[in-house]
Amino acid sequence: MGRVVSLGSINVDHVRRASDAELASLAERYDWFPRQGQTVRVETLPDEFAPDTDEITHGGKGANQAVAAAAAGATTTMLGVVGTDHERFGVRPALTDAGVDADRVGVADAPTGAAYVFVDPSGDNRIVVNPGANAAVDDAYVDAHYDAVRDADCLLLQNEIPAEPVAALLDDLAAESTRPTVILDPAPPAGVDPLLGRDAVDYLTPNEGEYAALADALDAYDGVVVRKRGGDPLIVTAGDDRFTVDPPTVDPADTTGAGDVLNGYLAARLAASASLRDAVETAVVAGSMATRTAGARAGIPTLDEVRAFRTE
């Protein structure tokens, strides 16, 4: 089914189901508080920013995408760093139980990365990310696992770990005679520009907010753009070719992680030599199905479930 490596963030998600009034109050209090559908990285959170949580789950864009790729049938490896508290949260066993090879995940002397996920009454989310141990992904760590990346069929990247070692990795891959297909999820968009200009980036998967934020940089990008638009038709642009894919109608409970599921499935299907259109159509259905269950990973469907849904 193909080999996928996800190099990225591994978080513990603190989920808060919030009213519109509470979200408006937070937005007024903190000028960095995300808009609907937006992810914002905050290096140091104020002491008073301690929202009551309804649920603590496993997350991180890198880890979520790895779990989705495994659910789609790919042989999947996770590369990233957790904190000294990872055993308390069962972070690595959760990846292993989901079929992801977590043997190469490192441990840093820092807390595991945290994401504060605010889910509004309609199921849409706003995410505040505090990097924690994700910031410990450096050149030495990436170099130590270069063989796993180089030998993969598809590499998943996001922007929740330091950009510098990822940019160096992309330059090294560009010099290889054979290399994995690279899919970059430009979330959060702040600071992702250095990665967009790398020749090794083959696919870019922004949502509407990220697409708008990166409009100038996208003018110089000549790879495939898979533009995620929530419940609206997804737009795929590959050179002069352009097509759209309508997501299926579902009753969403929580959109957290839906984009990650789409990315993981896209990587797995491309790694399995599916056509671009088929890979995107399968990924869109998987991402939509995942929204029916609360939590970033709880609703990730298997490939058989996705195929059955498409048939129905």
TrEMBL record:
Organism per entry: Haloplanus rubicundus
GO MF: kinase activity
Family, per entry: Belongs to the carbohydrate kinase PfkB family.
Keyword Kinase: yes
Isomerase found in the keyword field: no
Gene3D superfamilies the record matches: 3.40.1190.20
Lineage top rank: taxon: Archaea
Name of the featured protein: Sugar kinase
Signal sequence region: none
